[in-house]
Amino acid sequence: MGSRELAERMSPGEATQSGARPADRHGLLKHSREFLDFFWDIAKPEQETRLAATEKLLEYLRGRPKGSEMKYALKRLITGLGVARETARPCYSLALAQLLQSFEDLPLCSILQQIQEKYDLHQVKKTMLRPALFANLFGVLALFQSGRLVKDQEALMKSVKLLQALAQYQNHLQEQPRKALVDILSEVSVATLQEILPEVLKADLNTILSSPEQLELFLLAQQKVPSKLKKLVGSVNLFSNENVPRLVNVLKMAASSVKKDRKLPAIALDLLRLALKEDKFPQFWKEVVEQGLLKMQFWPASYLCFRLLGAALPLLTKEQLQLVLRGDVIRHYGEHVCTAKLPKQFKFAPEMEDYVGTFLEGCQDDPERQLAVLVAFSSVTNQGLPVAPTFWRVVRFLSPLALQGYVAWLRDMFLQPDLDSLVDFSTNNQKKAQDASLHVPERAVSRLRKWIIFRLVSIVDSLHLEMEEALTAQVARFCLFHAFFVTKKPTSQIPETKQPFSFPLESQAREAASSAFFSLLQTLSTQLKQAPDQTRGGQPWTYHLVQFADLLLNHSHNVTTVTPFSAQQRQAWDRMLQTLKELEAHSSEARAAAFQHLLLLVGIHLLKSPAESCDLLGDIQTCIRKSLGEKPRRSRTKAIDPQEPPWVEVLVEILLALLAQPSHLMRQMARSVFGHICSHLTPRALQLILDVLNPETSEDEDHVVVTDDSDERRLKGAEDKSEDGKDNRSSESEEESEGEESEEEERDGDVDQGFREQLMSVLQAGKALGGEDSEDEEELGDEAMMALDQSLASLFAEQKLRVQARRDEKNKLQKEKALRRDFQIRVLDLVEVLVTKQPENALVLELLEPLLSIIRRSLRSSSSKQEQDLLHKTARIFTHHLCRARRYCHDLGERAEALHAQVERLVQQAGRQPDSPTALYHFNASLYLLRVLKGNTAEGCVRETREKQKAAREGRPGLSQDPTLSQALVPSQGPLSCCLDLNLVTRVYSSALSSFLTKRNSPLTVPMFLSLFSRHPLLCKSLLPILVQHVTGPVRPRHQACLLLQKTLSMREVRSCFEDPEWKQLMGQVLAKVTENLRVLGEAQTKAEHQQALSSLELLNVLFRTCKQEKLTLDLTVLLGVLQGQQQSLQQGAHSTGSSRLHDLYWQAMKTLGVQRPKLEKKGAKEVPSATQSPISKKRKKKGFLPETKKRKKRKSEDGTLAEDGTPAATGGSQPPSMGRKKRKRTKAKVPAQANGTPAAKSPAPGTPTLSPSTPAKSPELQKKNQKPSQVNGAPRSPVEPAGQKQPQKALPKKGVLGKSPRSALARKKARLSLVIRSPSLLQSGAKKKKAQLRKAGKS
């Protein structure tokens, strides 16, 4: 850190400027590292880091305001103003400003003097001129940002003079000093400005109009001190004819300066305010803006005009707004919106939207100005099409009066378009077009009407919660009337008939009105859910629109439909109204509201397509009457058909037909209606839905025609799009055409054999192909060549038609497939509603295999986006709504046997899948069926279970003879309330488990069986013997079985199914199998064998943990002998790949058995001296140890063969190496340990039992737990006996916890001394203190 700080302080050129003082450089050590780090963090690019460092620096200095830290901080910050890193200079400037703001006792003149002395412009070298200039500039800015500069007259004058001096260096600083000067002078008082003004502003008008900063200073003086300015400069008219060109140049320079910042220069807004103040705004706008800046064809100047237009809106009156919003600027803005289409082009429309939104929000009390601005922006059109989007969010700021006026203007423009009131324009490409049909008024009117109708709908969509109900009704009636009706004769009862058209309403506009009307219906249906009280009389908007349509139909003399009704269709309409009245009697039922919504929507569709909707209305009315308990009316001539389908099936067919339409409103309605009728669903009705989803049958189904209006939408969109982007799209179209040609060549490259034969025959007939003697033959004549050319041309034309026909057929099939997939996605809505609202319905069980078939097919061919959407939605319904549902079917009836067969089938299918993800879905489906069978309480299942139990008592083979199994399945219910056949299910899953353990590439996985075991622990109890059996099998089954057992034995659910003796017996069996595996430990030659050894040791450690938690007593004698016998083979393979993990697991198990892992010295470590050797070797003398003659005698005596208490001291051969500081702090009472890891003899305390090899040994961890507090590391000692007294030893136990041999005091001292010698020099002072303490302890 010291060198880094010095490098920062001594920046290049600093030594020459201020001189390097060694005292200051060495003074860095007086400051803390934390304090010095603040200055590094201040210069970092992250804003949060800089701010946090500045805050910490200020807090640090507040505690030491008079110390040397303040002086150093000022010096460092001033030095940072001129560092070479340009990004760091503003950071140091801001930190200096905050420092001066926090400590007001620091004089600004002194700081400014330090900055000028540090960066003297007259003495600095040429190479360091630029950093010095910026240092002075940022220094003045720091004084200004502190807020104290305008209060200090002396510092202010010096800063102004410095900025004037800096303004001469334009090559480096450009106009930054003048901008800073203007900012400073704008904050000073009037008196101060009057005093300073003669020094900063010249009396020459040419100088004032030479730069934006000079002009801005002039405008500032004119605003604050006009009398002083008049004495200095005289009377000045900036908007005179001779000054206008210079104003334009100044504004152009200002526009260029903010090109990257994309903001409005302050000078432009100041000039606008001055023009308004002097009543010269029209002259300023016309001459300076429109005829000056706008004519330059310079985009930064154009953007300045757009921003000035947006910023001027709140400042202008209604008359001035008309001047601005109908001029060249708004027209040029429209051209920019139309031409800026490419992604990388700058788009000004979002910025203008912000300007307009700010204006509308700020003048809520002036609806006339709001309406004028919104109408003006809606009147900017490109050949009749407004450039404003149909969905413009600024309308949310309109007042109610302005909104009402805007809607009225839109309706009037739809009926009687006034093209002369529009600010219309054509782009350059449109002007070059020679097609006269593009410039006719009818085309402009059609484009305008389409925009208006969608604009009306978007207003309701964005403001349907705030709009008045009457205004919403007006828009809805307007759209309905002009979409489906035509006026024959005006009448006072229908206001819509009194509004004639100035241009006839064409068919395309009616189609757009029809599409917009149904979009409006969807918005109003959403409104019904969110705010139902806004509808009149509590009825939905659809009901009122149907009543309005009935009123129009009844006035047939005045109004007629676009598509006339037949007598049958009119009867269907009347019956629909009658059914609606009947539904009002059942208004309390939720089902009646859904039926009403369905009936209303289909009734309104009768206006759009009478032939298709007529039959649907009749079927819907019949289904509604049947569902509400009424018998349908039948003619006497018609007999009752006994084969008539139930009403639910008919209604499901109707919903499927409606889902085939590409309408989001119909999709929502179908979900709503199906949610009310799904409780009445029949198997046949469900089969109708599954037939659509079944991949095998849905490919050839034609009973549901899937419609698509994308082509129409594309045609409408192409018609509405302007031709302004032709130049931008020309290159793209050329690339696309080239791509299509290349694709066509590739496709035509593979020509069929028939075409080749035809080509050969034509060439042979024309003698174009010669044989062996073709060289001798003459060339073909002109007539023969012409005939051959015609034949070839006709042949290739036919081939091209055939290729095009095949391509069209392929595209048609792909489109049909896409429509079918989209239809299936929509039909999945009904499945989702069924499993969500009726999870206890038995029909839900029929969905498993169809959903699985969709998942299988989609996983195999999920290339397209539609296939992926279908897969994701099906998987979500299957996983989240079906398999993980909290509720499920509890009334199986006679389905129990079929479900058992289905479980077996699903498990078998899971084992045959090509990959694990697909198998997981099948396995989860079987688990769901197990849960249904386990929790079912049907009487039929109870009788079946009783028969099986009775058969079991009679001794029939194949049935369960354990009556407790069925009780344990559902413990909260009766003993015979479960339908699950445990024997059958056990056989199924045991076969799957055996396949998983033996099959090499099985799709089944360990998590699948873990999920099975955790959910059904009784089934796990029956499958555990298979796992235990495979623990000692081949390599792969052994590994998988060990992994499963590791997780299974830790499950509480599995443990609760075993009695204590059974659990102990299971643990013993697993332990015996693991012991058998460990006999070959360390002999692994392959990676699989090595993995098997790892899994066996992991399973062993799991067994130890389980025994410790359960406090089980197991005989570990054989296991300990096996592990000890394999220690040597493990050491031989200690350096093989992956052996470290194996050794860790091995010694973890040995530690549990009481054997500690020996400490192995590193290769570079020095051996501890033995008793026969000298305590300090000759080699260590060279390392700095004291020679033998300098050592004290007591230290030499401590290294003898016997200690004072008579016990043998640890020699260098048997003493383990140093074990670290933490272990040295432990109690000295430890038992010597052997180096090879075998258990050493320990001295048990009185009353502590010692296990013999013949008796089962308790877990060693439990022995630790039962020891007294005085026992440490398995070395018990009586508290009354002295530490040095020798204890009688007993027989050597076969297992236990090893102790650790105590090291002599000399060994501990030498270890500490060697650690100190190897430590860095800065830390040896503490080590010397430790050494002195050790010497004092040795003397005592």
Provide keyphrases for this structure:
1340 residues, mainly alpha, 3-stranded mixed sheet, two-stranded antiparallel ribbon, 63 helices, disordered N terminus, nucleus, ARM-type_fold, DNA_pol_V/MYBBP1A
State the major sheet.
Answer: 3 strands, mixed
Query: Could you name the ranges where pLDDT drops below 50 across 5 or more consecutive residues?
Result: 1-27, 528-534, 630-640, 698-705, 710-749, 771-777, 942-946, 948-977, 1164-1182, 1195-1330
Rough shape?
A: extended
The total of beta strands comes to 5
Distance between the termini: 44 Å
What is the structural class? mainly alpha
Q: Which percent range describes the beta-strand content?
A: under 5%
Gyration radius, rounded: 47 Å
Rounded mean pLDDT is 75
Give the topology, please.
Blueprint: H1 2-9, H2 14-18, H3 22-26, H4 33-42, H5 47-62, H6 68-80, H7 89-102, H8 108-118, H9 129-145, H10 153-166, H11 170-173, H12 176-185, H13 190-200, H14 205-208, H15 212-224, H16 226-233, H17 244-257, H18 266-277, H19 281-293, H20 299-312, H21 318-325, H22 328-339, H23 349-362, H24 367-378, E1 380-382, E2 385-386, H25 400-415, E3 423-425, H26 428-432, H27 441-463, H28 469-484, E4 485-487, H29 507-530, H30 541-554, E5 559-561, H31 567-584, H32 590-608, H33 610-627, H34 647-659, H35 664-677, H36 683-693, H37 695-698, H38 710-720, H39 726-749, H40 753-765, H41 782-837, H42 848-860, H43 865-883, H44 896-911, H45 916-934, H46 939-953, H47 963-969, H48 982-998, H49 1006-1015, H50 1017-1030, H51 1035-1048, H52 1052-1055, H53 1060-1077, H54 1087-1110, H55 1117-1125, H56 1127-1132, H57 1139-1152, H58 1178-1181, H59 1193-1197, H60 1221-1224, H61 1260-1266, H62 1305-1318, H63 1324-1339
Helix pairs in contact: 4-5, 5-7, 6-7, 7-9, 8-9, 9-10, 10-12, 12-15, 15-16, 15-18, 17-19, 17-20, 18-19, 20-22, 20-23, 21-24, 24-25, 25-27, 27-28, 27-29, 28-29, 28-30, 30-32, 31-32, 31-33, 32-33, 32-35, 33-34, 34-35, 34-36, 35-41, 40-41, 41-43, 42-43, 42-45, 43-45, 44-45, 44-48, 48-50, 49-50, ...
